[in-house]
Amino acid sequence: CIYCKATLNLHYKILLYLYKPFHHTSDKCFTADYAGAQTNQVIITPPAGKRIEIVSNYVSTENAEGDITLKFTGSAQPFFKLYTKTKTDAVGNVICALGEIDQTIEVTCPAKTFISIGYDIKD
User: What is the CATH number of domain 25-122?
Assistant: First the structure.
């Protein structure tokens, strides 16, 4: 019936609208494979006067001796943390973290850790 088709079409459009914010791909990507442990190591620095917006990340480690923390420098709250005693890898598919102007990103992690971060540069 015409009513059913119109209703299904409307529901489909609503689902696409709701899903769109979660289907963002990053403009830039950072990757690193650390053989040794890192403590508050700066890994991404934005251009002067710009901000970093985190879109996604992936981390993995073979080491359960220390947690993996990703945060903006100077922030007490990480935007991503992996407790390695319970899990050795994780994907952050939808991360919405926006740093302050000129704020860098730093990592603290145990040895044998791989990190990949998708991010954008914002004004």
Answer: 2.60.120
Q: What is the 3-state secondary structure (H, E, C) of the chain?
A: CHHHHHHHHHHHHHHHHHHHHHCCCCCEEEEEEECCCEEEEEEECCCCCCEEEEEEEEEEECCCCCCEEEEECCCCCCCEEECCCCCCEEEECCCCEECCCCCCEEEEECCCEEEEEEEEEEC
Taking the model in full, what pTM does it have? 0.78
Closest CA to 79 of 96, 91, 66: 96
Summarize pLDDT for 4-15 with one digit per residue, the tens: 454 555 555 555
Count the alpha carbons within 13 Å of 13 in the hemisphere toward its beta carbon.
6
Residue position matching structure tokens 């791989």: 114
Q: Which amino acid is at 121?
A: I
